[in-house]
Predict the structure.
Amino acid sequence: MTTAAPPAESATPLPAVFAHLIATPTAIGAAGAEADTACVVAESWLPYEVREGDSLLALALASGSSLVELREGNCFGPVTGIIVGDSIALPRLLETPLAPSTPLFPVADTAYQVLGCDSARATISEPSPMTELQGVFAVHGRAQIPEDGKYRISVKPAWSPDYHRYLDVERSIVDDVIGLINTEIFGPGLQRLRLEILNGDSEIADGGLCEIPLVFKAP
């Protein structure tokens, strides 16, 4: 199994929709005026000092927020991580850090299976299923959206019962980078990476699902 590294400066340039990822909170509207609007940290939120074992997703859930809401409330880009000792803003303060209560590697065979990915509309070509990854990595593949649609990348850690929206993009990408992910946002262990092609009603289009298991390593 291989370990992914952040894209090098000499690598093939990312599609324009991802050129801003580290600097802005969302990919939707990347080519429009929203990308040029200065972000302001949520004024009503309270400061929290990041502790050992915290992840951005765990803090979002423990503070009654979602990953995207917490990211945007702090003016974080999609790949922005957190470091012990950093101060971030939360909708409400926590009494204790949130720790996963279930195994990082479940026993159920379904957790390790590939789902969908047999359509030309939604494919993940890299990384391969069960690749061990650390830090920021690129997801390569194909996401062909219908008119007025979009594609969504979500991640489900083994300890979480839910998929967590990570990135929405309102354009098709064929055989190129469809997203960048920072493993530290979700914590170590088995993860389910899901690509959904959504129509104008936010429903999954025919052949529009590809989901693979990956392993995120601790920093």
Notes: The longest helix spans residues 56-62.
